Task: structure prediction
Amino acid sequence: KVKRNHDEQYAHWSEQTDALIDREKFTKFVSGLPKYCLRAKGLLRFSDAPNEIVSFNLVGVRACYEKHSEDNLIKSGLVAIGRAESFSLDYLNDGFKGGRSETKLTS
Result:
């Protein structure tokens, strides 16, 4: 029986931004996540509804968006984990950055 170190089998990534998130671009980015990630979650503010905070959860291919009760979120953030051999930091970095709006969050 071969045992591998958990840290060698899995990789993780996280990012935050004070920019609002473009919902359409984020949705397109999320559609590619199951290829690289087992799980992703975050709290987001979308540019089309800047006063609403959305909780995002991805498990496998199932993505869920729910209104979140937090009301003082300054930065949107996303965390992802996946198997190290298929994890793509480039996809995550480029996709999350590409989904940002030019509008910044304000407190």
Remarks:
- The helical segments are 6-9, 23-32, 89-98.
